[in-house]
Amino acid sequence: MANKKYDLVIVGAGYAGLMAAKTAGENGIKVALLEMKHNITRLRRSDGQTLIPGNEEYLGEWMVFNPKNHLVRFLNSGLSFRYEGPYRNIYAVHLYSFGGQDIKFGDAGEGKRKKLLPVSIATEKELILKSLLDQAVANGVEVFPGTRVTDVKKTADGVKIISDRNSFEGTFAIGADGTNSRVAQRLGFNKERKYYSTMNTVGYLMKGLKVPDPDTTFLVIGRFRDKPVLIGIVPRPAEDIHIVIFISLDVRLDFVAYHDFVIKESELSHWFKGCPEEIVSSSANNMWSTIVEPFKDNVLLVGDAIWTQESENTGALLSGGKAANAVTYALLQGKPNRDGISSYLDWWKKTFVEAHPRDMIMDDYVLGVILDNDQINYLFSLLNVVMPPSMLPYTLARYIGEAIGEVVPILQKEKPEILVALGRMQQETPDQILAKQVEAGVPNR
Ligand SMILES: Cc1cc2nc3c(=O)[nH]c(=O)nc-3n(C[C@H](O)[C@H](O)[C@H](O)COP(=O)(O)OP(=O)(O)OC[C@H]3O[C@@H](n4cnc5c(N)ncnc54)[C@H](O)[C@@H]3O)c2cc1C
Questions:
Q1: What is the pTM of this model?
Q2: What one-character DSSP code corresponds to residue 349?
Q3: 140's torsion region: left (phi>0), alpha (psi -120 to 50) or beta?
Q4: pLDDT per residue over 389-439, tens digit each?
Q5: Which one of 71, 117, 251, 379 has the largest count of C-beta atoms within 10 Å of its C-beta?
Q6: Which of 10, 23, 33, 36 has the most ligand 1 atoms within 8 A of CB, as the residue to mutate?
Q7: Atom of ligand 1 nearest to the CA of 46
C-alpha cells in the first residue's frame, strides 16, 4: 500500500497525544494518530485521574475549570478541552508514614469553608479521553487504533513511523507514547539518560474507606521487606469511593504480601477494615532522567516520554498542545526544522528544565530507601504542622525540605543518623540511591 504523507504523525493517544491531535486538527493540518490500544478511551493503566494543580502555577500556566460551560482552560496559551463528567474538588494532601504520623499540606475542612482553590480536581479520565478523541476526529484527524509503533526513521523531507501494521510518513512526528517510550528509545535518547528504576503499580477501587479526612489525597511512604513503597489514596468524583494505588520502586516486590500487610497489619489497617475492593488498573513505568532537548530527526517528544517518572495529566495535556501549535507554526512559516518548532523547546527549557534543575520528583520517592519505617515515622512526627495546600510533587518536595531545615537542631541532638541519611539526597543522584532497584529493573535502553 502506498504511504500517504501527513503533516504530523502522532504516536500514542493518552492525554499528551490526544491533546496534540485535537489541537493540530483544530489548526487545520493533516494528522494521523497511532495508538496500540484497540479501545483508545479505555483506561487500564493506574492513574489517580486528577487534574493538578488547581491552586498554583505549573509550566507557566494556570488551569481553570468552569463547570458551567464544561471547559478546562489554560490561561496563558488558551489551550482548552471540554469535560462534561462528574468531578470533585480535593483541598489537601496528607503524607503518612506506616506508623501513622502525617505531614499535612492544607486542611480540607478549611479549604471548603473558606472556598479556597482546590489543589486538584478528581475526574473520570475515560470521559476526558473520549472528549479529546471526539474533538480530534471532528477536526479531521485520522485515527489508527490497534497500531503498535516499532521504529522511527529519518527521511529526506521528514520522518517515517513504522508500526506492526504499516508505515506512516510525516513532515513532523510527535512521540507521546508514555514512560516506556519506544520513540525515545529508537531515537537513542535512553542511551544518554540516567535510569532510576522501574515503578510497578496496582490500583484498586475501594468503597467506604475510613480515612481521617474527606476531599483529601493521602500518600503513604515507607518500606516493605526492605523495598521502597508508596500508596496513593485519591477520592473519586463519587462520594465514598477512593482509588488506592499500591506502588513499588523495586520490581522484585511481592505485591500480594504488600497489599495484605497494609490492609491487615500496618498502623493504617483500620482505614481499610471491611471495605469492598476491586482491582482496576496496573502499570510498569520506567523512570528516566528528564530529556533536556526533546527534538530529534523532526520528532518532538511530549508527556511522560520526556519527564522523569510523570508529567502529571496537566503536563501531558500542555506539552501535547504546545508541541502541536509549534508544528503548525513551523509548517505555516515553511520551516520544517528545529528553528520552526523552537517555541516548544524554549517553553520546555524555561518552564520545566530550568525551573526544576534536578529531577526533584525523585525526592518524594527515595525517602523509603534512605530511611526505614521507624525513622520516617519519627521525622514526620517532628513535621506535624499544617503546611500550605498543594498537590504538585515539586512543591511538596520543596515544602518538606524547608520544614526539615527548621528541625535540624532537634535532629542533630536526637537522631543525627537521619540527618546523615537525608544528606544523601543532595550528594547522590537518584540512580545511585536506588542502585539495588536499578540493578533489578528493566530499562528499555
Ligand atoms: C500510579 C500513578 C498515578 C497517577 N496519578 C495521577 C494523578 O492523579 N494526576 C495526574 O495529573 N497525574 C497522575 N499520574 C501521571 C499521569 O498518569 C501521566 O503523567 C499521564 O498519563 C501522561 O500522559 P501521556 O499521554 O504522556 O502518557 P500515557 O497516558 O501513558 O499515554 C501513552 C499512550 O501511548 C500508547 N503507546 C505506548 N507505546 C506505544 C507504541 N509503541 N505504539 C503506539 N502506542 C503506544 C499507550 O497505549 C498510551 O495510550 C499518575 C501516574 C501514575 C503512574
A1: 0.98
A2: I
A3: left
A4: 999 999 999 999 999 999 999 999 999 999 999 999 989 999 999 999 999
A5: 379
A6: 36
A7: 1
